[in-house]
Amino acid sequence: MAELPESRINERNITSEMRESFLDYAMSVIVSRALPDVRDGLKPVHRRILYGLHEQGMTPDKSYKKSARIVGDVMGKYHPHGDSSIYEAMVRMAQDFSYRYPLIDGQGNFGSMDGDGAAAMRYTEARMSKITLEMLRDINKDTIDFIDNYDGNEREPAVLPSRFPNLLVNGASGIAVGMATNIPPHNLTEVINGVLSLSYNPDITIAELMEDVQGPDFPTAGIILGKSGIRRAFETGRGSIQMRSRAEIEERGGGRQRIVVTEVPYQVNKARMIEKIAELARDKKIEGITDLRDETSLRTGVRVVIDIRKDANASVVLNNLYKQTPLQTSFGVNMIALVNGRPKLISLKEALEEYLEHQKVVVRRRTEYNLKKALDRAHILEGLRIALDHIDEIIRVIRESETDKVAMASLQEQFKLSERQAQAILDMRLRRLTGLERDKIESEYNELIAYIEELKEILADEEKLLQIVRNELIDIRERYGDERRSEIQLGGLDDIEDEDLIPEEQIVITLSHNNYIKRLPVSTYRAQHRGGRGVQGMNTLEEDFVSQLVTLSTHDNVLFFTNKGRVYKLKGYEVPELSRQSKGIPVVNAIELDNDESISTMIAVKDLESEDDYLVFATLKGRVKRSALSNFSHINKNGKIAISFKNDDELIAVRLTDGEQDILIGTSHASLIRFNETTLRPLGRTAAGVKGITLREDDKVVGLDVTNAESDEEILVVTENGYGKRTPVDDYRLSNRGGKGIKTATITERNGNIVCITSVTGEEDLMVVTNSGVIIRIDVEDISQNGRAAQGVRLIKLGENQIVSTVAKVNEEDEIKEVDESTEAIASDVDNDNASQTDLQGSQNSEAIVEDDAPGNAIHTEVEDEENTSNNDGRQEVRQDFMDRVNEDIDNADHGTDEDNEEE
C-alpha cells in the first residue's frame, strides 16, 4: 500500500482527539436525533416525516399511500439513515396506544398493545391525521425558518409552526448520550387551558397551572395515584408518577368472584403482563387465582379476566397483583428538551412559556407576511386605479409604442408608475375596462387598505397579537379537545398527598361488619321522613352489613380505635372513594390490624395538636377514661396503644370533648348515667381508666356521648327493631360516676334492646343502618319527643331478619347542598297508622326508676304497669322526685369505694 504524503498527516494527542470527537458525536445525537424541540415537540425524524407528507400532499382528504413510498421519499430527501428507523418512527405516530393524539392515520397492521410488530412497509398505507394539519398550518407563510438538507439540494423546516402544544400533548421519549428524555402525554384541552391561563397571568404559579393541567393523560387511560409525583415533575421537570390498571371485582355466582382489568398502564405490554400473572400464580407466589384469560376484542376493548378461588379474598389478590405485576407501575418523568438548540431540563411553566413565545413568533411572522402581500397587492391596485382614471391616454400610449419595453417606459414616465404597476397595466385584459370590473377593483382596494391597517395594528400592539394566539388555540381546543382518559385518584392508600391539592368536601366513611371500608360524598344520601324504606347503602355479601358510619371532611383525620384498645390514623382522603353499592376494600389494606383485632369505633378529628380537647373512652364493662387529644398527635402506621384493659374488657366507643362536657353512658338494657367530665382526671394515653357505670347481670355498654349542660340538647335512643325517641337532656339528672344510672327506655319484645344512645340538637339528620346494608336518612325533628321510659316511635320499616346495626348523625350545616339525584331511591309513604299507634303506646308507658341496689341498701322500686301509672300521675311524679334523691345518695356511696380509684 502506498504511503500517504507527509503533508496529509497531522499528529494529535489521542486524548484530545477522543474528547473532541466524542463531544461532536454526542452533540450530534442530542441535537439531531434523540431530543425533541420544545417548540413543536418533535425530533428531526418525526419532523421530516410530517413535512414529507405535506410536500407529497398526503392530507386527510386524500387517499392513503404506501408506507414504503413515504419512507423512501423522506430518506432520499431529508433523513439519510436506515429505512427501518424511519418506518418505526412513523408507525409509533400512528399507534393510538402510544400517542394521545396520533399524527399519522395508518391503514393496515400498525402493531398492538401486546407487543406485536407492524406489518412490513410494503403492506401498510398512511396519510396525515386531521390534527397534523394544525402542526403544519401556515408553514408556507414564512412563519418558520428553513434550512438546507443534508446535501444542500432541498430545504427543510428547522421547526414546525405547531399550532397546538405537541410536546406536552403527545409527550416524547428518547435516549441521547449522557442524558435521556421521558415526557408523558397530556390532555389537549387541559394543556391549551394552561397556555391560555399563562397568557393572561405571566406570574402564574405551578399550583395555579395545575388547576388547568391536572396531570398526564395517557392514551391507554388507567389510574394515576396521587398528585405529589405530578407536582414534583411539573415544578422541577423530574418526578415519578404511579400508574395503576383499572380493575373491578365482579360477582360470578356461587359466591365466586373475578377480577376484570379494562385499562392497563401506559407502555405496559399486555401480553407480558398476563404472562407475569400466570407465572406468579403457577409458582404459588400469588394464591387464589384459578383461571386467567384475555378477552380483549375490538368490540369490548381491553378485557383481562382473572377468576378467583371461592375461599380467596379478591381484594387481597388484586392488591398482590398491584405489588408484584405490571398492573401497577411508575412513569419516570424527565422533561429534557432542546431550548434554543441546547438541551435543558424544563418545568411545566417553562414548557408552556416556550410554546407561547413560539406561537407569538409564528403569528407575528404570518402577520408580517400577510402585510407584505397586502401592500404588494395594494400597490398593484393603485396602478390599476390610475389606469382606469386615464384609460384613453393609457390606450393611446400603448398604441403608439413600438415595443413592450417602450410602452412600459412611457407609462412609468407619464403616469409616475412603478415597473410592477406598469407591467400589471400591460397585462390587464380589455374586460377589466367595464364599469363592473372598475367597481370591483375599487372595492378590493378599499378592503385591502382596511386590512393593511388592521395588520399594522396587530404588529404594533402585543396584546392584540396575543389575543389572536388565544383565539386560534381556543378554536383548536373546540375542534379536537376531548375528555380526560386517565383518572387521578386523590388519596391512594400508599400515597400521602399535599392537602392543598385535594378539594375539601364532606364525606361519609362506612365500615362493614366484615371489615370493608370506603368513603362516599355525604350528599349521596338524602333525607327521608321517618318510616321510609331507605336507600341501599352498599351491596353487601351474605352475612355482611354496615356496622359503623362517620361524617367528616376529606382533610380531617380519622382515628380508628380497635376492640383491643389500639388506635390508628388515616386522612379522610386516604380512604378510597367507591360507588354507593360497592362493598369497599378490606380495612386491613388500609390499616395493619392483627388477626383478632377489629375496629370498635371511628371518630373524626380536625386538629390533633389541640391542647384544649380531650378524648373520652368507654369500655364494654363500664370503665371510662379521659385523655388529652394531643397524646394522639403522632400515630405511626402500626398504630399505638389508646387504653389498657383489665379482666378481658373491650373498647366500645370514644368521643371528642372540650373538657367541659357532661358524659352520657348507656347500656343495652336501657340504663343511662350522666356525669360531668371534670370528675374524670385526665390520664395518660395507656392508662386503664376508672369505673363509669355499674352494670347489672348480662348488661353491657352500647353508647357513649357528651352533651353541654347549658344546651337544649336531647337524648336520642334507637332500638334494634327500628324504634326511637327524643327525650330532653334535663330529664336525666347529673350524678356521680360509677352509679347504675336511670331508665332511658322501656324494653319490650316489640322494640328490642338499645343499639344507640346519643345527644342531638334537632338540627341534624340521622343515618339509620340495618344489618342488610339499607340506610335511611331521617330529619331528627321528625322523631317524636317522649318521656324517659317511653318505647319510642318507628323510624324505619324492617324486613324479615332485619335489625338496626348502627346509627350516626349528619350535621346539616356541613353538607353539600347538591344531591346526586341518580343515587336517590323513592321514599315510601309514611305509615301514619303505625306511627300514631307507636306514639300512643310510648305516651302510655310510665316513667320508672332503675334503682341502685348496692350492698347494704334494701330500697327497691318496681316498674309500675300502664294501668296504675295512667291513674296515678300525681303520685308517680312525687315518687320520681323521691327516688331521684335516694339514687343520688346511693351513687355517692358507690363512688367512695376503693374499686373506683383511678388507675394510671
From TrEMBL:
Residues 35-501 form the Topo IIA-type catalytic domain. Pfam families: DNA_gyraseA_C (PF03989), DNA_topoisoIV (PF00521). Keywords: ATP-binding, Coiled coil, Cytoplasm, DNA-binding, Isomerase, Nucleotide-binding, Topoisomerase. The active site is at Y123. Residues 438-479 form a coiled coil. Its EC number is 5.6.2.2. GO terms for molecular function: ATP binding; DNA binding; DNA negative supercoiling activity. GO terms for cellular component: chromosome; cytoplasm; DNA topoisomerase type II (double strand cut, ATP-hydrolyzing) complex. This is DNA gyrase subunit A. The lineage of its organism: Bacteria, Bacillati, Bacillota, Bacilli, Bacillales.
